[in-house]
Design goal:
By secondary structure, the protein is mostly helical. Helices cover 49% and strands 5% of the residues. It has helices at 2-5, 9-13, 42-59, 69-76, 89-94, 103-128, 134-159, 170-173, 181-198, 212-226, 229-240, 276-281, 295-300, 306-310, 346-359, 363-376, 387-401, 408-415, 419-426, 441-446; strands spanning 80-82, 262-266, 291-293, 312-315, 322-325, 341-345. The longest helix is centred in the first third of the chain and has 26 residues, at 103-128.
Length: 457
Amino acid sequence: MKTLFNLILCLMLLLPLASCDDFVAVDLPSGQLTAPAVFEEVSTARAAMADVYAKLRDSGLISGNASGLSVLMGVYADELDYYGDAAAAPQHFYQNSLSATDGVIAGLWNNSYSEIYAVNAIIEGVAASNKLSQADKNKLTGEALFVRGLVHFYLANLYGDIPYIKTTDYQQNSQVGRLPLVQVYDRVIADLVLAQSLLPEEADYERVLPNKAAATALLARVYLYRGNWAEAANEASAVLNSGVFLVPTDLDTVFLKDSPETIWQFKPTADGINTYEGQSFIFTAGPPPLVALRAELISAFEPGDMRRSNWVGSIGEGSTAWYFARKYKQQTNTGSSEEYSVVLRAAELYLIRAEARARQGELTSAKDDLNFIRNRAGLAQTAALTQAELLQAILQERRVELFTEHGHRFLDLKRFGQLDAVLGTVKAGWNASDVLLPLPESELLLNPNLKPQNAGY
């Protein structure tokens, strides 16, 4: 896996840290020459972690730009139609024409493992430091563990069995094999549980640094995907019952930078800049330059659903109308940033808890959580009566609540076992093997221990 792990720690961490933007403002010592120097001062150690967040925002799986999952998995599923360059990455996802030699596949894999390498370097550097306080060590290590769990979680859901990388040892990493999915989840959970114990309770005022609540929220999602229903409900409750993260009634405030619903978000590159999501999804004339919401999604909104009026915009009329995601309202520089890219928010936790409770047979409390989100959107109580009806209602609610947010729709259909039934009817050329992306051919050639290739490729 040479392309993943040939990053040398001193080169990675000692690059000019302007790319860290201003997640945390730092002044680097001008004479810094060796990697250990990064961890002699909290400011430089924080800058190394800030650079990880910048890369997650700009080129990672959860970026809001055209190379992130919000766009890629939106066109792969039944959320988005693609109108952009026919040679660009989203076209391959839209047409189900991915191959193991596709550059976007290698990019997703390599960027992710580079981010994992970076946080492993931080974990090792912090542990070896005798200059940082224990409080600073705990916070930095907790953040790095949180990111390591997050990125592995997404990789596992895209590629299936994957390596779980916990070291910067090149020789070890270059020969690593893939772990079964259940073991990957075990390690993600272990990282997040440890992160919970190390991260502070309080959130920074902009909520751009993950705290204990962020680790708990992500852990709730992982438990849900793993089928640990009681644990998923408990972790969601721990965040929701804290009283810190409130779901506003005004839908137009949900994605503002100071929304009380936000648990964790990315700060833009500079003040005045807003989000990649706004740039990717909003358009002011037709045809759309990149993507538009599919008709199937527009028709999924119930009459009176305020998410349809508040979170969906349109250009044109009748048969010539195009629809776009308008969760983020700003597309251009506004002088002072108004919106940050939200990664974790409280509404998802209500739906996590609703599903976890429903799967345990706790139908009344599951309905309460589902209805809380429905009522916020101006809808009446759910008419679902049985467990099966309630689970289907929750899947539907996730569709209209979490659309264009980091691939939720594709991953939900996959979890519910409905990918073939749904996408097989709306996407030409859909195959059952499309449930997983191909592993990059370049990585299989470098490291045969990653074989076999995923089925269908």
